[in-house]
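Sharing a chain and its predicted structure for anyone who wants a worked example. Both blocks are below, sequence first, tokens second.
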Amino acid sequence: MAAVSVAGFVVCFVLGAAFYGNGAGNSALDITAYYARESERLRQIADFAVALAALLCFLVFVAALRRALPSGVAADTVLAAGTSVPILLGAAMLSGPRARSPSLEPSYHIDPRTLLLVEDAGFVLFVSAGAVGITFVGAALLPRRFRRWFVWVSISVLGALAAAYWYIPFSAFLAWVLVAGLLL
């Protein structure tokens, strides 16, 4: 079950990132033009749906990892660090409603300044989830459930999560989750 859930998490996360793309832009003109296109709004709605599926798969992985670890502080910490799921869900939720509002309310216009503020809040949640991920990975390694080579690889993943601010390093965490799920 862990292998299927991590594969689902990684595939859905990558697919969601592809749907999101580069976002609406930074200028008022770019943002207005972006949300005027229904295809862009539909992509962001799809991004939200796929992100939700990814997070549900991640929850299954958290539960499987928790069961695989001997009871104790590390197992409880893994479960607690699963709180990165609602943090990431919050980041995803900040994109979904923005895209859906113009469809529900045809006279609704997105204020570009507000949009940038909401996107920044989503970014802060994403970086925060990376920080919680450090605890998650570290706790998973404490009981020495994994092979020695994986522990050494995991140390670089801790550094990558600390650099989640730049997005790309987060891919190391995706790879870590995939391998950890397969090793379980």
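Comments welcome. The radius of gyration is 18 Å.
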